[in-house]
Amino acid sequence: MSVDLRTAVGSLELLNPVMTASGTAGHGAELASYFDLSRLGAVVVKSLASFAWPGNPAPRVAPLPAGMLNAVGLQGPGLSAWARDELPRLAATGARVVVSIWGRSVEDFAKVGKELAELVAPGAAAPFVAVEVNVSCPNLEDRSRIFAHSPEATAAAVDAVGEAGLPVPLWAKLSPNTADLVEVAGAALDAGAEGLTLVNTLLGYFVDLATRRPVLGAGGGGLSGPALHPVALRAVRDCRVAFPSAGIVGVGGIGDAEAALRMLLAGADAVQVGTATLADPRAPVKVLDGLSAACERYGFASVREAVDALSLGTDALSPGT
Ligand SMILES: Cc1cc2nc3c(=O)[nH]c(=O)nc-3n(C[C@H](O)[C@H](O)[C@H](O)COP(=O)(O)O)c2cc1C
Ligand 1 centre from 200 Cα, in Å? Predict the structure, then answer.
């Protein structure tokens, strides 16, 4: 039996549902020496702002028993330097590129949206297939509260990017650190996002007993990897029930094909592989290579059959308290 791996996130059709996760696969073609990037559904680059940003002090990542803690701090060259120095090499691999963007204010989001629009030559196809609006970052105009913890701020950021009139779909990358995830997701969709990327990291903190210091230079950080997997599945499930026709990309703790299939069953149209790539740069393509066999093993003839199989009912999940 050959499994049909094709899928779609909203209006964006993909050869298969496996992508890299922003921030874990470099800014450009870094992984191209490990595998053919054009084999993936898409490559999501590390979040870019309209300005260069130095990120946080070292150490920036720490492995933990159930995952990893990071406080890289959105280090990046800025969109225009990236477009000049990284995008051509990445595009030459034949990868379908998803550009992740971030900002510290609504104005920042508007600016980076405009700069992206300037990369699209008149009459030509955009050199990227979607834009992921990473709203899981601090809003300087709201006491550094995370945009994605507020429906209004999320809507304002997505709307500001939408003003640029980009010819590709927008996805909002949301944070799991809120009880209002479904409300925030609804605000993103109402503001023009066609898809939701669920989820970014969970806030965390870890202390080294020997040094009596936090393990990260920034103090706190974001938890990713296996510990995040059920959190991400829950976010996807809750949003799929609330928004049956939204494009949904599931990300969190996916390190093998079974976890990817589990995410599709929760209702994600596609998946991203993050922390697993830091341990093994071939992780995304290994997930892809295992997906057909996993689908066959669990009786799915296609990825879409798995996505549409949600036999869990449509009632809200128990809060589990
Ligand atoms: C080192 C590191 C850097 C990250 N940088 C970004 C980033 O720039 N933008 C973003 O939207 N998410 C970023 N993330 C979050 C991941 O894209 C992903 O949402 C999260 O790690 C959960 O997936 P995982 O468990 O597969 O890693 C980063 C994660 C890690 C571990």
Answer: 6
Evaluate: CB of 105 within 6 angstroms of ligand 1.
no
Is residue 315 over pLDDT 90? no
Residue with tokens 């944070």: 175
CA distance 295 to 8: 17
CB 264 within 8 A of CB 17: yes
Q: How confident is the model at residue 235 (pLDDT cuts 50, 70, 90)?
A: very high
- Measured distance CA(313)–CA(321) in Å, rounded: 20
Residue 149 domain boundaries: 7-307
pTM, full prediction: 0.96
Question: What integer best gives the mean pLDDT of the chain?
Answer: 95
**19 C-alpha vs ligand 1 centroid, how far in Å?**
12
Per-residue pLDDT at 188? 98
Q: Tell me, yes or no, whether 296 lies in a domain.
A: yes
Q: Determine, yes or no, domain membership for 254.
A: yes
Nearest-CA residue for ligand 1 atom 15 is 200
pLDDT, residue 311, reads: 57
Ligand 1 neighbour 176 (Cβ under 6 A): no
Can you read off the two tokens belonging to residue 303? 């990825």
Q: What is the CATH number of the domain that holds 207?
A: 3.20.20.70
Q: Of these residues, 14, 29, 43, 137, which one is catalytic? A: 137
Give tens-digit pLDDT for 122-153.
989 999 999 999 999 988 998 889 999 999 99
Element containing residue 204 per DSSP (H, E): strand 202-204
Does 312 score more than 60 pLDDT? no
How many domains does the chain contain in total? 1
137 catalytic per annotation: yes
